[in-house]
Amino acid sequence: MLSHLPILQVVVPMLMAPLVLLIQPARLAWALTLATSAMAFAIAINLVQLTTSDGPMLYPIGGWEAPYGIELQVDGLSALFLLIVSGASTFVLLAGYQSLISEIKESKLNWFFGAWLLALAGLLGIAVSGDAFNIFVFMEIASLASYVLIAGGPNRQALPAVFKYLIMGTIGATFYLIGIGLIYIMTGTLNMSDIATKLPSVVDQTPILVAAGFISIGLALKAAIFPMHAWLPNTYCFAPNMVTAFLAACSTKIAIYVLLRVDFTLFQSSLIGHLIQFKIFLIPLACMAILAGAYMAMRDTLAKKIFAWSSVGQVGYIILGAALVSHSGLTAAFLHSFNHALAKGTIFIGIGLLALQAKSGELSSFAGLGRRHPLAAIAITIAGLSLVGIPGTAGFLSKWLLIQAVFEQPNGVIALLAIVLVSSLMSVVYLARFLETLFFPPAPAGSEPTLPLGATTILVLLALSSIYFGLAPALPMELATQAADTLLGYGK
Amino acid sequence: MSIEQQLIALLTIPALGAVFIGVMGRLHPNLREAATFITAVMLASVAWSLASAVSHGARGEIVLSQLNAALSIKLHIEPLGALFATLAASLWIVNSLYSVGYMRGNKEKHQTRFYIFFAISIAAAMGVALAGNLFTLFLFYELLTLSTYPLVTHKGDQATIKSARIYLGILMGTSITLFLPAVIWVSMLNGGEFTLGGTLQGKVDGPTAGLLLALFTFGIGKAAVMPIHRWLPAAMVAPTPVSALLHAVAVVKAGVFSITKIILYIFGADWLFSLNTTQWLVWISAFTIISASVVALRQTNLKRLLAYSTIGQLSYVVMATAILKPMAEIGAALHMVAHAFGKITLFFAAGAIYVASKKIDITELAGIAKRMPITMTAFTIGALSMIGVPPTGGFVSKWYILAGAFEADNFLAIFTIITSTALNATYFLPIIYVAWFMPETVAPKKEHGEAPLAMVIALSITALLALGFFFYNAPVLDLERQLVEVMQ
To answer: What is the chain B residue with the closest CA to A393?
Structure first.
């Protein structure tokens, strides 16, 4: 039974998706979706335990051995991202019921939840897949489903946003596919570990180099790495609040996962000069992302867009850590993926709850809401502090590790250090601006219905876990180290 | 209790106290104030017993959490931290008494929130005092900044928010961009552990040590070494008990304490003395002392004047530490105590004057001593201690710092102390003279005498402490001698 977990991880949400479509009362559909997501979460936890204790798991679908059959592969790296994706989905669903019914027509909710499960299945499928083409398939499933989720809200501005996302996402996926195609032509296989063994013996490396370029740029588009981030801010901003929370926590990260997996597994060990190219290409982009994201976050006046821009910057941190191509850099990047997913998810859930009482998405409509709902606002504050990297929160550790990794660099230490530190300060500014708006103006007059109690409790628990993982980070630290080991292990 | 248990108690008592205060605040204000008192008294008694154990040579440490192979949250106890913890904990009792009078006399809103964050700030200050490595020190240092922010913004109006932005901006800005990289850098060199005598020697060369020292000095903005001082006057928008305990004792002393501790326990004083790349610290602190006094001369708002006086007095501690000779290090520790007693008295007096008469400007203070003789007596004692006139505590610490300066043949320090004493006298004595001997020029809005009794008692106690420290300072000396035993 346990050996089937890799396939169950994907199959459970995928098969439940059409079933949810048939369920009518919205509440029941929600409960079923939540149960499915929780099951996926439980499977992910199991997989984390299994990979930690027994090492990577390979699962040939239908018993067809690789490289002829399709293979699923769960190792320390994919386990971390399975945990992030399924956890994000579960907690967002758990806290998001009221927010979802306030934004989406009740008659459409079962369709919405169906799409949610497909998105979940797609994202999880990307992480378990050991086959480069299957990654593309799952990527498309996840993307198409998330276009539906994003456009499903009441906000008409989501439509142009999602159209932009669709165009850019398709270009990204196509680029990836072109790259995989080139590799297939040169090696005759799609299985990742098989490609890895065959690549070095390919005589003409030029098509591989082109493939690496296509794949890197295509995935950079999907991961919203600056300057290919243009689709992200509006998409996050105008999507239904809980969709934002879900996608912000995990969708760009899964693209980063693919980027790193393909890059480290396939190219770093075999392509001559690729390492340098990878660094020279990504480090400047990461630096620009960090600064531009934080700068735009400081200037924006839409509550959710502030934190959407912040995501652009935070993706930059993750890429910077990875692009240093050192064990400490990768550990920092993966730890930051986890911490950022937790913090950003919490913030967007919190904003979603407060938005139940805000007239619009403008920052000014949130004025004084922190006085009315101190618990939710304090939870946002704590998650925000983790985002900034205040000591005692989870975000501080990943930033500490990132700075340590920067210190270990042979050159450019001061410039990189300055960028990381200055951007932290900028994040203090945008966070403070948001919190000042929440706390200092007088509480809005008029109706004061309380926030849903259960959702608030989840929100507070999530915020507290940001502190817990800041003081006792054994679990994410081990996962991140394991993920870094996995990637660097391929080189040897 | 064992040393380890006491260490944990020092951290948890105020933290749990904050919860206790919050619960009691829902029931009745009197219960809430009682909770604050009980917490403060418990904390101080633990701190005293720990300090006395330390002065008999006891030491201890405890790891609270091991984050990864290299990082841990760790508490330890040594003479300097014991002194700082005891000082802050003891003055918290007096300050709580004063707060009751001030907050009620001034009819402030959100008093429960005030007491809760006050307790959290004290917990953070304890963490700074007991930090067993640089990482832990940084953690509690930042927590102290964040937990005082709601106190600084207590009033919640536009002017307050603006000042609080300066407060948070400067403190966080310097700590993130300068202090943090220094902490990480040193942690990678020697694990960031505190060892008396330092462990950096041989690991970095002279110029690098100078650079690191600069990162620490300016990164620890709470020490208010110029040009990182603007946050302190900005913080004066807080209610006076906050200015008194936090921005004259706990927060600012956390700054100079951190610098002193890092010099003694990370760099090692003897090694720094042998380098010529660290002398600038005496210069910059001397500059801060003199220019803060000159700026104080031009202030008319009493609390702002006291803030600039604090900036100067903090740099006394930094300069004393930077002299790097045993007598001066003892002087630095003594000055933390002496200045604490004197400055908290001055702030208490300023707050008492405000509550009784709503006066905040020194030009309005003429003749006020006739209405408030006890307050102004305490103010006078506090001011004399700032100047360093015997028989006040300020004299003792200046004596030791001077002795250290002679020991090191540091004529710059000697010149600075003498000049600044003259300047201090120039801005404090006129206030005292006018208050006692001139007729009242600005009539108060309504007739008044002394401030509420709780405040008068509190400021009398601290004034007596400022006097008493001149006669009875042996325990502090015994404690701090252990700091310099390893020095040449």
So the answer is: B139
